[in-house]
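Chapter review: from sequence to fold.
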Amino acid sequence: MKTFISFVLICTCSTFVYADSNYVNLQNPDLSARDIGGGPIEGGFNIYDGQIHYWNAPNSWGGNGYNVMDTTTGTITNMGKPASVNTNGFGDPFGVYDSQNNCFYAASYNTAWQSCLYKYSYENSIWSEEGTAVNMYGGATYNGNLYISGLRSPWSGGYDNTFISLYDFSPLHAHDALIEVGGASAHVTLDGQGNVYYATYDPTGEGYLYRWTAEQVAGVMNNLAGGEDDTFLTLADGERLSRLAGGANGIVADEAGHVFLTFNSMDPLRPSSLCMWNGIAGDDFNYDVLATAGSSANWFGPLAIDGDFLNGAPLYGSYGFGGPITEIAYLVPEPTTLALLGLGGLLLRRRK
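The token string follows.
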């Protein structure tokens, strides 16, 4: 059973919200933020061992393909791109590193009915084409597999054809539908136990955060290329964790099981936000708002983290399409500071 921690400010002394970012306005004084560069960020990215991996669509704007940013030095290394990339050039869905297979996957938007996948292998420094899907929006790796979110048939109006699927690398590219989620597409994530998290982007302007257990998902994994029937879960099979005050987009789980997400909203009373699920499941607004839109923000997008946020691991996000990566960190109190403040300026509320 996990322990979730959310923070409530109880210090009566003066506090400051430390921010060096044009893209977020922090909502908690125990956070810091800074725009660290990189980009332009268009789609999903991830971080492994202090290295942020992301993809810029090759286009007339000068996108140069696969890039790796060292979060310690800020150095960006360009890893190149395939000799030919089928992309419309206006922003591709994601680029993520798979530590188990030691490779990088880049997904592109080619047409309204085709997304293409490319792989860079660190073993031989070679790019390869890995087939197509009708549509890819989000991508996440776990246990050597690539999970994608997006449409499974060409869009013809409405929002009823969005799925989380398991990418099939066989020559048939018979991608296995795992969960029917509906709505407009959003990103997908898995925690360290293989549980799947997804937050919906409903045209009504609100959404919900859901979780499906690893056992549930394993039960609907089918070898379609081998002739098995395709079975899948739905929203009704998932555990509803929270209602959202906007349409969800980015999502990530840290190594301690804390779940972070972004949603976009046109309501000035409930602005686009970066949120942290508070560990309570249900239909209420079960999250803490960490940040809202800054002066340069235009689209709260994908997120990435490597480690435990409440133990100092930074959370990286994109809050403006084509903008930089923004780093948000929890200012972990020093033990001596806690003693001086009489248990500090933060009350840790634990939920079993």
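Two observations follow directly from the output. The helical segments are 214-218, 335-340. DSSP finds two helices and 29 strands in the chain.
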